Amino acid sequence: MENSTSKATIAGVLDIIAGVMxxxxxxxxxxxxxxxxxxxxxxxVHDPEAAQxxxxxxxxxxxxxxxxxxxxxxxxxxGMAAIRRNRYWLALVGSIAALFSFFPLGIPAIILTVMAERxxxxxxxxxxxxxx
Length: 132
Description:
The protein is an all-alpha fold and 132 residues long. The chain contains six helices and no strands. It has one domain. The protein is rod-shaped and about 75 Å long. The mean pLDDT is 89.
């Protein structure tokens, strides 16, 4: 009999790493939108017709940045839940978010979270049989 395995902890760490990568990607996308809009706006100084399209880069990159931000936050929060082993559904959502943010980390995170499901349903300190 064992108290827990390291599956949920490893899945949580993978979720957090993928989530942080998604948060960084969100910041990069937002910066691309701002810089792109500024570049188009600066081009509008010489060409007045170009100035009317200054919103286009921000309109393209802002929704992507928001999506990456949401996925990153879900990954980090789900990873913390997996490490604490307190909410299985949240850990699974974090693993799925990790799949969308960085595929090579998301697949093992989902597999390890599903394999560690029994650890989430037992209070800390309670022993249970781990099937290998």
